[in-house]
Every structure is written in C-alpha cells, then in structure tokens.
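Lesson 9: reading folded outputs for more than one chain in a single document. The general rule is that every protein is listed as its sequence immediately followed by its structure tokens, and records are never interleaved. Here is the first one.
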Amino acid sequence: MIGRQILWLSLIVILCSTANAETIKKDGAERFKGELITNSIPMEPGALLTINSAGSLSGSIEIKTGGDKLIYRYQKVLKAETKSEAARFAEVITVASEQSDLGITISLRAPQTTPWAGTNNSGRLRLIITLPEGTSLKINSAYFDINGIGPFSKFIVTESLSRVEISQVTDLVDIKVSNRPLIVNQISGQIRLTNQYGPIKIEAADCTGETAVIRNNNGDITIESLIGGLEIRSEMGRVFGKNLYLTGDQNYIKNKSADIILSFDSLTTGRLRINNRYGNINLRIAGRLDARFVCKTEEDSEVTAQGMFISSPLVDKSRLEFETGGGLAEIRVTARGSGNIKLIGPERN
C-alpha cells in the first residue's frame, strides 16, 4: 500500500513538472525562444521600479509609459545545439517581482556559473515593461541593453557595460556606462552622465538652475542642445557642442588629448572656463556676445578672433585679452601643449 502511494506521488510530481515546463520553440539554426510571459502589478504614478539582474545574465530591457499599472513581459532567447539543451538553459533563468513600501523590484536571475558558460552558446532575456507616467527607475544591470521612452521622473543606471538610450526624464538622470554608447534626449533637472570607452550623446537637455556633469575617458562627447550649467571632464575623446545656452558661474570644460569644438546661442552672462592640453579649442558664438575673454596658449601656438568687435585688447605672444559687447560674461580659455584657440563671433553685437 505504501509503495503504491509513493508511486502515485511520483506520478503527480512528474505530471506537475511537465505541465509547468516552459514551451521552447525553434527560432532558426541553433536558435530557440521561450514563451512570452506577461505579469501585471498595480502601481502608483511616481513610484519607484528597481530592476536587478544577475551578473551572469544578459539581454535587453525596453521601457515605455502608459496606463495605470506595471505590466512586464519577458521571453528567453537561447542559443543551443539542441532543443533539450535550450530547455536546460531556460530552466536556470527566472524572473521574479516583489512589492514593498519602497516600490516594486523585478529580479532577473541566473546562477553564477551558467550551463552555457565558456561555450559559444548563450541564454539571454528580453524584458518589455510598460508603467505609469512619472515613474522613477533604478536599474542595476551590467549586460542588458536599455531603451526607455518616458516621461519618467528619475532614471538611474548604476553601472552598465551595454548600450543605454533614454528620453523624456523630468527630474534626475544619473547613468554610468563603461564601453558602449550612452544616448539621452529631452532630459531635464539634475544630469550626471559617465562613460569610460564609449560615446556620450545629448540630443536635448534643460538643466536650468542646475549644472549637468559629464565625464568620459576615451569616448567623444556630443551635445546637440543644452540650456543651463555645464561641467565636462574628458581625457582622450573629442568634445562637440552646439546650441549651447549656458547659465551660472560654474561652467567648466576640460580635455587632455582631443579637440573641443563648441557653438553657443549667445554668451552674455555667467562664467566659463575651458582647458585643453594637446588639442585645439574652437568657439563659435551665433547670437549676442557680451563677454570678456582671457585666452592663453603656449609660445608655439596661436589665438585668433574674428567676427567680433574687440575693445581694450591686451596682446602678447601667448596671451590675448579683450572685451566685446558689454563684457558681462567671463570666458577663460587655456590651450597648453600644442593646441590653438580660435574664436568666431556673430559679426554683429
């Protein structure tokens, strides 16, 4: 009798495991995918969503806003030689969510040593999220490409080795990337962007009353449009900026081994310091110009200024000081090493 009960229990366990097993479908040569699984959780506007992923797991995270709850969908994308191997990969990838007073957390899990580790195969996860407008996000994920379209309140990425592209953030953007592109658009409030070996691109930013802080070691920094304060520190990448309207007294741009090329809507107030060591500095002012310039170079380099009315000039071999317009803004430009300085005004004041 006891033996029969054990047999029945074993059959029930096997049947339940079979019923709960995820369906794996072939998706090309040595390519498989799991089911698209959907979950939803009530979520208040302005709440915090945290996404944590295992360091052994990679994939993509796509985020958009809409509706009055959190809806997340996920699908496992598997590269394996056989369907049974793909199913084995899928078993170790799990997604869980938890709700607390601090907000909602989605955890993307996999063992530290995965069954595909050290092979040409892989187990990846695609996560698709829709959540209410004005939500804040914090993402702790090294190997997931991130794409987000708001409006969001805050968007934080603690450290990523993958591509990050976001738009429409109102209060805070704080993103750290190591070697892939970082692209932001229509962002405002506090802005802190860091990259190590990949480019940073800001398509449109408004940090009025704040100072955007941008760091990059070996990648280019490109700004298409920015209003507010600006602090840039770069090492080996070029710095490009246009449609700049800087405010405040703490604007600072520093580079070491590449050109700085900037175009301003106007320069009429505040302070700006620009330093470069082994690259040129080119400044173009398209609109109104009321500034006092102090430009310094090494003896073998040169400073040129054109398209502006210059008054009270002080000129020697490595220094040019002058005022143009009302002289309200203070611009200090220093090129050390082999760099030249070129200033181009609007040809009217």
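And here is the second record, again sequence then tokens.
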Amino acid sequence: MTMRCVGSGACLVLVAGLGWGQAAGPLVLEDFTKALGERWKGGIELAKAEDGKPVGRWYGAREGDQLSLMTVPKDWTPYKAVDLWVWSATANKQEFMLIVDSGNPDTGGADSFYRKVVVDWEGWRQLAFRLSGLTAYRTPKWDQVASLTLATAGWGVQARPDTDLCLGEVRLLTEAPEGAIPRADVVSAFEIGDIGAWRSLVPDTEHVKEGECAGRWEGFGDLEYVRAELEMDWTAYQFLEFDCYSAAPTGDRFIFCIVSMDQPRPRNDYWAYILKVDWEDWKHFRIPFRRLHHIRNPLGWQKITGIEMYPNGWGMRPSASPDTVLVFDDMHLTKGEARTAPPGMVEDFEDGPWGWWWMDEGSVPARVGEHCGELPLHEGWRELEGDSFATTDWTPYKTLKLWVYAKQLPGEVLEIRAYGEGGMWTGDVPLDGEGWREAALQLTPNPGKVSAITLQLRNLEGDDNGKANRDLDPAAVLCLDDIRLE
C-alpha cells in the first residue's frame, strides 16, 4: 500500500498487515478520522493511505517540534499503558520524547512522566508504553493529566533534517500488552530511553553488557548517591539480577536499597545489602529477596517505589577511592524456587552472605559446599549482625554448631549472640590455632524464635557502630561456614 499526505504531495509506504485498527483498545485518544481542529498543538497534518486508512503526518518533527494532544482524559489511573503506531521513513536514530504532562496542584512548575524513544526502524512500529515504567519528573499524578506530548526539541533531544514521521491510532489500554516497554520484569535496561530516570548515572557506551548503553555511576568518589523512582509490583518474582562492571577491586563499599513506602518520610522504609567492590570487569549479581535486610517498615513487594545506592553512611568509610568506577546494566527480575536448606540449618552461605551486614565472601576454600562467609577484620569491624536465616525457631534444638576458620587471632574469642523471644543467648568460640575447626555450643537458655544474631571479637573494644579501636594482625582471617542447630 502507499500513502499520500494531504496538502504535501509526499508519498510514504505502509507495511501491509500492520493495521492498528485490528486490535480493540479500551480508549482511543486519536484515530485521525476527523479534522484536527484544536485537538493538537504543533506541526501535524492529516494524511491517508490509498485504501483510506487515516493517519497524521508529523511534519514538525524534523524542525524541532513539541506536538501535544490536548483532548485526553484527566484521570489515567484506570489504565496500564499508552499505545501508538509510528511510521518512519528511515532508521536515522532520531530521538523524541514521549511526555505525559501532569500538573500537580500541590507543587509549582511542570510535572510529567516521560520516556525517550530512539527511531531505529523503517516503516511502521507499534509502541506500547507501560505507564508504571515511565520516568517521573518532579511530582506528577496520574489523575491530573493535561496532555500527551511528543517532542523532538528540548529534553536533550535534537531534530534531524532527514526525519519523516507519521502517527497512527493512539490509545490508552487497561492492560499492558506483551512486548510493552519496558517489560514487566525489567527494572532498567540502562539504554538511552530510560537512563534518565537514574540520578547520578550517565550513559556509558564503552562498557556495555547488553544492548547499546549502560549506566555509569558519576561521582562515586565524590560520594554522589544514585536514585531512581519506580512504581512496580515485584510479588511474582523472587530475585533481582543485574550486571555490574568494576574498573578495579578497590575495596570500597556501597549500600543497595530497595525502597517500599507510601509517601516521602523523614526516613525511608526499605530492604538493603552492603556490597563490596572486590572484583574487576563484569560481575553478575542474583540477589534473593528473602535474604535482604529490612529496615523499618517497608510496605511489601507489591509496592516498590525506588532503588537507591549510597557510597557512604551506614558505618562505611567517609571517603571513596577515585579509582572506583562502576557501570550497571540489564537490571531485571526473575522467578525461581527458593533453595531449601536442611532442617536446623541457620546459615550455609551457599546463596552468598546476603543475610549478614558487612559479611564478605570467604577468601579461603569453604569447609562444606562451595561458599563460606568472612568477617571484614581489616576494615576495623569487631561486630556485625545478621537478620535473615533459614531457621529462625530454635525452640526444638539443644546445640548450635558451626565451622570456624581462624588465622593469626591468638587469644581472641568470637562471641555469638542470638536475640529471641525467650531472651538473649550467648556462646563463645576461642580462636586459637589455625585452620577450620568445628564448634558446638549448648543453647542454654534457649532463645526461642530468633530475630537477629550478632558476631563480635570479645577482646577488641569498639565504638557504637561496632568498629574496633585497634588494628589486628594484617594476616588475620576469620571465616564461618555451616551454622546449624541440632
């Protein structure tokens, strides 16, 4: 089929079989069957296919235009996606912004949701945007929508002289279709279209794991934090996965927070873990939700409102290495059965040390299985806490057993405290000798249902943050494996 543009004489080619009228939509915002009138502001004119299919030719796109559909409903809360067909004469990498203008009466200035689109196709393409995946600018509200805008000017985009775009039917959908942007399991692909949602992340096309772009943490050494606001339901998933590139194993740390809260509060509610930059090149992370630390009262996995990362605070060193370079890519959610631990197992470290604040992957071969945990002795820590375990009810058990690896810790004692409904239980493990050995501690009194465990070196004095006030032997090592109840 061919299409001629009314009043312009230009001819375009339509792809057969991509008729946008074939799929029923809950609410059609524009089908170009009537005179444009005052519905649109910007450079658009009617055009028709030879079979009579009506479309709109966005002639202003090549000139740097902001094209706005003004006749949209104010309340978009019943809808899950906005869907439109876009034709391009060439895959010229023209960027344009899709903007849902939403004036928040509680704030002054512009508020909106947005997404950047890169035209990398020829002919027709259906674009369905998941509303929950659009980036919020300031404090927009879905029940205060004023217009839908497409822009090739402003927002960091520039018009190209060879750009030739047409629009097909524009709809609001009550369900996001398969293939909607972004996918339901995608937190961020860190492509040009969505990296703008992340504070302190900038595009990196040199270090890329998937696609054409990744997100580099700009200002880690200057203690700049990262933040992205989300509106997602993670209840169908069990893991968060992403790839992270590190230029060097600097030993810096950062806290990774998954925020779940109703409204801004003086302090966030979230799940978290502290990561240590101890790798070079790309590393893949698969974080089990069930092992993360919960801070205060997150609402639940059904309401994830943001991700934040901080290079300081939480007892971390007050300065960061200028050599720390981190790049993130392909952050997504996955499903999977939680690994079932044997009865009585408290911690076997086979998922990694996620359940413990500050615990590192062991630097020595594990005593049982493939992984063990190591206390970060050389960062000044004498005490750390765990609060996410396979077995929390210790009532039926009489003994706590664990494997302990000690090196260059003569005279030191590992003190273990379990905090439960039945009170606090304390056990001591002398650290004389070198290598792995098994410790067995009687559970008297039994702490009952345990909510937290602390580990500390008794003979090291420290501050309120659990940091020691003297250095240990540089060769000192303390690792744990297979903490279990019998």
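What the second record shows: Confidence is low (pLDDT under 50) at residues 1-24.
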